[in-house]
Amino acid sequence: MCRLTAVVAGGAVALLVGAAPSQADPGTDDSLVGPSATATEPSAEPFGVGATATDTFGGYLPEGAELTAFDVENPTVGRLDPALLAAVQEATRSAAADGVTVEINSGWRSVGFQQRLFEDGVRTYGSVEVARQFVASPQTSMHVVGRAVDVGGPDAAAWMSRNGPRFGLCQVYANELWHYELTADAAGVCPPMKPNATG
């Protein structure tokens, strides 16, 4: 069973997971989506929840686990879009040169895992409308397609806010200091932030 906990800090909300993942084999679940989720044909319905509704492996990080952008054997990192992964790795190296450690708190997530996070948000906030401000549905989450990463570590979010655009990485939502996507233009300019996940 997966325990999901909402933590509020400075007006932002993080959903934390604190239980053992299921023993699903990541190499055999054809319902997973992402750049390298499967070597077979892509699913005709990539956002269908189906059997993955009970999945806790796809993006789960045990409490206290730390990942970096170089831990590609973990699907949370390994299934990131290749361009995003390269940008985050380059930014991580640059941050390290400045004495800042960038950890990956979340990256790629399966449809089922994102659905569980969304449903927990609905329970926490009391409605779908309010939950959407803090957690995306599987149909809209960039984590599900491997195009979003959440950073952590002391000073990492502040460093990324100042330096991320040099690598194409932009904070997308004003209420999520940790969430970055590869959305900067060729000049390293980020689009205006959205107030929250509802846009």
TrEMBL record:
InterPro entries: DD-CPase-like (IPR052179), VanY-like_core_dom (IPR003709), Zn_M74/Hedgehog-like (IPR009045)
Any GO MF annotation of the entry: carboxypeptidase activity
One Pfam match: VanY
Endpoints of the signal sequence: 1-24
Entry keyword annotation includes Signal: yes
Keywords: Carboxypeptidase, Hydrolase, Protease, Signal
Origin superkingdom: Bacteria
One of the GO BP terms on file: proteolysis
Region of interest (Disordered), ranges: 22-49
Domain D-alanyl-D-alanine carboxypeptidase-like core: 80-173
Protein name, as recorded: D-alanyl-D-alanine carboxypeptidase
